[in-house]
Request: fold
Amino acid sequence: MSSEDNLLPLIVEPERLAERLDAPDLLVIDVPLRPDSHAQGHVPGAVFLDHRRLLRGEGEAPTDVPSPEALSRLFSELGLTRDTHVVAYDDEGGGWAGRLLWTLELIGHTRYSYLNGGIHAWRDAGLPLSTETTPPTPSDYQAEILHPEVRIDCLELQERLGEKGLAIWDARSRAEYDGERGNNRRLGHIPGAVNLEWTLAMDRERGLRIRDYAELITELEALGLNPDMEVVTYCQSHHRSGFTWLVGRALGFEKIRGYGGSWQEWGNRDDTPVER
Reply:
Protein backbone atom coordinates (compact mmCIF):
# COMPACT_ATOMS: atom_id res chain seq x y z
CA MET A 1 0.00 0.00 0.00
CA SER A 2 2.91 2.28 -0.60
CA SER A 3 1.57 4.08 -3.66
CA GLU A 4 -1.04 6.81 -3.36
CA ASP A 5 -3.30 4.86 -5.73
CA ASN A 6 -3.57 2.06 -3.18
CA LEU A 7 -4.66 4.19 -0.27
CA LEU A 8 -7.99 3.13 1.13
CA PRO A 9 -10.68 5.80 1.58
CA LEU A 10 -11.70 7.07 5.00
CA ILE A 11 -14.81 4.88 4.91
CA VAL A 12 -13.99 1.52 3.36
CA GLU A 13 -16.52 -1.13 2.36
CA PRO A 14 -16.01 -4.77 3.44
CA GLU A 15 -15.43 -6.08 -0.09
CA ARG A 16 -12.75 -3.50 -0.80
CA LEU A 17 -10.93 -4.26 2.44
CA ALA A 18 -11.15 -8.01 1.72
CA GLU A 19 -9.21 -7.43 -1.52
CA ARG A 20 -6.40 -5.67 0.38
CA LEU A 21 -5.92 -7.83 3.45
CA ASP A 22 -2.52 -9.07 2.32
CA ALA A 23 -1.10 -5.55 1.82
CA PRO A 24 2.16 -5.32 3.82
CA ASP A 25 1.53 -1.85 5.30
CA LEU A 26 -2.01 -2.62 6.46
CA LEU A 27 -2.88 -2.95 10.15
CA VAL A 28 -6.47 -3.97 10.88
CA ILE A 29 -7.48 -3.26 14.48
CA ASP A 30 -10.58 -4.75 16.12
CA VAL A 31 -11.62 -2.62 19.11
CA PRO A 32 -14.90 -4.21 20.22
CA LEU A 33 -17.25 -3.21 23.00
CA ARG A 34 -17.60 -6.88 24.03
CA PRO A 35 -14.17 -8.56 24.43
CA ASP A 36 -15.60 -11.99 23.46
CA SER A 37 -16.62 -10.57 20.07
CA HIS A 38 -13.04 -10.91 18.79
CA ALA A 39 -12.78 -14.57 19.80
CA GLN A 40 -16.13 -15.36 18.17
CA GLY A 41 -14.87 -14.24 14.77
CA HIS A 42 -12.94 -11.31 13.37
CA VAL A 43 -11.52 -10.02 10.11
CA PRO A 44 -8.60 -12.34 9.25
CA GLY A 45 -5.32 -10.89 10.51
CA ALA A 46 -6.98 -8.24 12.70
CA VAL A 47 -5.29 -7.51 16.03
CA PHE A 48 -7.34 -7.01 19.19
CA LEU A 49 -7.34 -3.73 21.12
CA ASP A 50 -8.91 -3.36 24.58
CA HIS A 51 -10.91 -0.12 24.23
CA ARG A 52 -10.11 0.90 27.82
CA ARG A 53 -6.58 1.69 26.66
CA LEU A 54 -7.95 4.61 24.64
CA LEU A 55 -9.00 6.36 27.88
CA ARG A 56 -6.82 8.16 30.42
CA GLY A 57 -8.47 6.26 33.26
CA GLU A 58 -7.66 8.71 36.07
CA GLY A 59 -8.06 12.28 37.29
CA GLU A 60 -10.99 14.67 36.84
CA ALA A 61 -11.36 13.67 33.19
CA PRO A 62 -10.78 9.88 33.17
CA THR A 63 -12.25 9.53 29.68
CA ASP A 64 -9.86 12.06 28.13
CA VAL A 65 -6.95 11.09 25.87
CA PRO A 66 -4.09 9.16 27.53
CA SER A 67 -0.65 10.73 27.90
CA PRO A 68 1.77 10.67 24.91
CA GLU A 69 3.84 8.12 26.90
CA ALA A 70 0.84 5.79 27.28
CA LEU A 71 -0.06 6.23 23.60
CA SER A 72 3.54 5.51 22.59
CA ARG A 73 3.43 2.23 24.54
CA LEU A 74 0.04 1.30 23.10
CA PHE A 75 0.86 1.97 19.46
CA SER A 76 4.30 0.35 19.76
CA GLU A 77 2.62 -2.80 21.11
CA LEU A 78 0.16 -2.72 18.19
CA GLY A 79 3.04 -2.42 15.72
CA LEU A 80 2.18 0.99 14.29
CA THR A 81 4.80 2.63 12.06
CA ARG A 82 4.69 5.92 10.15
CA ASP A 83 3.90 3.97 6.94
CA THR A 84 1.12 1.84 8.41
CA HIS A 85 -2.41 2.27 7.10
CA VAL A 86 -4.79 1.46 9.96
CA VAL A 87 -8.28 0.09 9.37
CA ALA A 88 -10.35 0.18 12.56
CA TYR A 89 -13.64 -1.52 13.27
CA ASP A 90 -15.74 -2.76 16.18
CA ASP A 91 -18.86 -4.76 16.99
CA GLU A 92 -21.28 -1.87 17.65
CA GLY A 93 -21.36 0.32 14.57
CA GLY A 94 -18.35 2.56 15.08
CA GLY A 95 -18.07 3.98 18.60
CA TRP A 96 -14.75 2.59 19.74
CA ALA A 97 -13.39 2.44 16.19
CA GLY A 98 -14.17 6.15 15.83
CA ARG A 99 -12.48 6.88 19.16
CA LEU A 100 -9.36 5.06 17.93
CA LEU A 101 -9.29 7.02 14.66
CA TRP A 102 -9.80 10.31 16.55
CA THR A 103 -6.79 9.37 18.69
CA LEU A 104 -4.72 8.64 15.57
CA GLU A 105 -5.72 12.00 14.08
CA LEU A 106 -4.69 13.67 17.33
CA ILE A 107 -1.16 12.22 17.08
CA GLY A 108 -0.90 13.11 13.41
CA HIS A 109 -1.24 9.56 12.05
CA THR A 110 -3.62 10.30 9.20
CA ARG A 111 -3.32 7.03 7.27
CA TYR A 112 -6.49 5.41 8.51
CA SER A 113 -9.89 4.06 7.49
CA TYR A 114 -13.06 2.81 9.12
CA LEU A 115 -14.54 -0.52 8.04
CA ASN A 116 -18.08 0.67 7.32
CA GLY A 117 -20.48 -1.16 9.63
CA GLY A 118 -17.69 -3.07 11.35
CA ILE A 119 -18.00 -6.80 11.95
CA HIS A 120 -21.78 -6.71 11.30
CA ALA A 121 -21.34 -5.52 7.72
CA TRP A 122 -18.41 -7.92 7.22
CA ARG A 123 -20.56 -10.87 8.33
CA ASP A 124 -23.51 -9.69 6.23
CA ALA A 125 -21.25 -9.61 3.17
CA GLY A 126 -20.45 -13.31 3.74
CA LEU A 127 -16.73 -12.64 4.03
CA PRO A 128 -14.43 -15.07 5.86
CA LEU A 129 -14.00 -14.83 9.63
CA SER A 130 -11.06 -15.95 11.72
CA THR A 131 -11.00 -17.16 15.32
CA GLU A 132 -7.19 -17.33 15.43
CA THR A 133 -5.37 -14.75 17.52
CA THR A 134 -3.00 -12.59 15.49
CA PRO A 135 -0.15 -11.33 17.68
CA PRO A 136 0.96 -7.83 16.65
CA THR A 137 4.55 -7.22 15.50
CA PRO A 138 5.83 -4.64 18.00
CA SER A 139 7.38 -1.40 16.76
CA ASP A 140 8.91 1.69 18.36
CA TYR A 141 6.26 4.36 17.85
CA GLN A 142 6.75 7.74 19.50
CA ALA A 143 3.37 9.44 19.84
CA GLU A 144 3.08 13.21 20.10
CA ILE A 145 -0.02 15.41 20.06
CA LEU A 146 0.55 16.89 16.58
CA HIS A 147 -3.08 17.85 15.80
CA PRO A 148 -4.34 19.33 19.11
CA GLU A 149 -7.14 21.12 17.23
CA VAL A 150 -9.19 17.90 16.93
CA ARG A 151 -9.63 17.91 20.71
CA ILE A 152 -11.25 20.49 22.97
CA ASP A 153 -10.96 20.66 26.75
CA CYS A 154 -13.44 21.76 29.38
CA LEU A 155 -11.88 25.20 29.89
CA GLU A 156 -11.87 26.20 26.21
CA LEU A 157 -15.41 24.91 25.73
CA GLN A 158 -16.66 26.87 28.76
CA GLU A 159 -15.01 30.06 27.54
CA ARG A 160 -16.49 29.74 24.06
CA LEU A 161 -20.10 28.76 24.87
CA GLY A 162 -22.52 30.79 22.77
CA GLU A 163 -19.86 31.84 20.27
CA LYS A 164 -21.17 32.38 16.75
CA GLY A 165 -19.96 29.67 14.41
CA LEU A 166 -19.42 27.12 17.19
CA ALA A 167 -21.96 24.30 17.48
CA ILE A 168 -22.18 21.40 19.94
CA TRP A 169 -23.44 17.92 18.99
CA ASP A 170 -24.57 15.77 21.92
CA ALA A 171 -24.47 12.13 20.79
CA ARG A 172 -26.17 10.69 23.88
CA SER A 173 -29.72 9.41 24.22
CA ARG A 174 -32.58 11.89 24.40
CA ALA A 175 -33.20 10.95 28.06
CA GLU A 176 -29.59 11.78 28.98
CA TYR A 177 -29.75 15.04 27.02
CA ASP A 178 -33.00 16.02 28.77
CA GLY A 179 -31.52 15.24 32.18
CA GLU A 180 -33.89 12.34 32.86
CA ARG A 181 -31.15 9.71 32.95
CA GLY A 182 -27.52 9.47 33.99
CA ASN A 183 -25.07 8.59 36.76
CA ASN A 184 -23.41 11.97 37.13
CA ARG A 185 -23.70 14.47 39.96
CA ARG A 186 -25.56 16.80 37.61
CA LEU A 187 -27.80 15.80 34.71
CA GLY A 188 -28.69 17.62 31.49
CA HIS A 189 -26.56 18.89 28.62
CA ILE A 190 -23.98 21.52 27.73
CA PRO A 191 -25.80 24.83 27.10
CA GLY A 192 -26.61 25.30 23.42
CA ALA A 193 -25.93 21.67 22.47
CA VAL A 194 -28.25 19.94 20.01
CA ASN A 195 -29.05 16.25 20.23
CA LEU A 196 -28.81 13.54 17.58
CA GLU A 197 -28.21 10.17 19.19
CA TRP A 198 -25.25 8.35 17.66
CA THR A 199 -27.23 5.27 16.59
CA LEU A 200 -29.49 7.46 14.43
CA ALA A 201 -26.53 7.91 12.07
CA MET A 202 -26.38 4.13 11.48
CA ASP A 203 -28.36 2.18 8.88
CA ARG A 204 -29.83 -0.83 10.66
CA GLU A 205 -30.91 -2.33 7.34
CA ARG A 206 -27.33 -2.30 6.01
CA GLY A 207 -25.22 -3.87 8.74
CA LEU A 208 -24.88 -0.64 10.78
CA ARG A 209 -23.12 1.22 7.97
CA ILE A 210 -23.20 5.01 8.06
CA ARG A 211 -26.55 6.21 6.73
CA ASP A 212 -27.05 8.03 3.44
CA TYR A 213 -24.81 11.10 3.54
CA ALA A 214 -27.29 13.52 1.93
CA GLU A 215 -30.03 12.55 4.41
CA LEU A 216 -27.67 12.92 7.35
CA ILE A 217 -26.44 16.35 6.25
CA THR A 218 -30.07 17.49 5.85
CA GLU A 219 -30.92 16.29 9.38
CA LEU A 220 -27.83 17.88 10.89
CA GLU A 221 -28.42 21.18 9.11
CA ALA A 222 -31.99 21.19 10.46
CA LEU A 223 -30.44 21.03 13.93
CA GLY A 224 -28.12 23.92 13.12
CA LEU A 225 -24.98 21.92 12.32
CA ASN A 226 -23.38 22.48 8.93
CA PRO A 227 -19.99 21.53 7.49
CA ASP A 228 -18.66 25.11 7.53
CA MET A 229 -19.01 25.42 11.30
CA GLU A 230 -16.67 24.42 14.07
CA VAL A 231 -18.52 21.52 15.69
CA VAL A 232 -17.75 19.95 19.06
CA THR A 233 -19.16 16.48 19.68
CA TYR A 234 -19.44 14.70 23.02
CA CYS A 235 -21.29 11.97 24.91
CA GLN A 236 -20.61 10.45 28.34
CA SER A 237 -17.03 9.30 27.62
CA HIS A 238 -16.25 10.34 24.01
CA HIS A 239 -17.03 6.81 22.91
CA ARG A 240 -20.41 7.26 21.22
CA SER A 241 -19.14 10.64 20.04
CA GLY A 242 -16.08 8.86 18.64
CA PHE A 243 -18.55 7.68 16.00
CA THR A 244 -20.23 11.06 15.52
CA TRP A 245 -16.78 12.65 15.12
CA LEU A 246 -16.04 10.08 12.42
CA VAL A 247 -19.43 10.69 10.74
CA GLY A 248 -18.69 14.41 10.72
CA ARG A 249 -15.36 13.77 9.02
CA ALA A 250 -17.01 11.55 6.42
CA LEU A 251 -19.62 14.26 5.74
CA GLY A 252 -16.97 16.92 5.17
CA PHE A 253 -17.05 18.65 8.56
CA GLU A 254 -13.42 19.79 8.48
CA LYS A 255 -13.54 21.50 11.88
CA ILE A 256 -15.16 18.79 13.98
CA ARG A 257 -13.60 18.30 17.41
CA GLY A 258 -14.03 15.74 20.18
CA TYR A 259 -14.51 16.64 23.82
CA GLY A 260 -12.60 13.82 25.49
CA GLY A 261 -13.76 14.65 29.02
CA SER A 262 -17.39 14.60 27.84
CA TRP A 263 -20.26 14.46 30.36
CA GLN A 264 -18.19 12.28 32.68
CA GLU A 265 -16.17 15.43 33.38
CA TRP A 266 -18.71 18.20 32.68
CA GLY A 267 -21.55 16.66 34.67
CA ASN A 268 -19.36 15.93 37.70
CA ARG A 269 -17.83 19.39 38.10
CA ASP A 270 -19.37 22.24 40.13
CA ASP A 271 -18.21 25.07 37.88
CA THR A 272 -19.75 24.04 34.54
CA PRO A 273 -23.11 25.41 33.35
CA VAL A 274 -25.81 22.83 32.71
CA GLU A 275 -29.02 23.10 30.69
CA ARG A 276 -32.07 20.89 31.11
Q: What stands out?
A: The radius of gyration is 18 Å. The chain has a mean pLDDT of 96. The longest helix spans residues 95-106. Residues 141 and 176 are 38 Å apart (CA to CA).
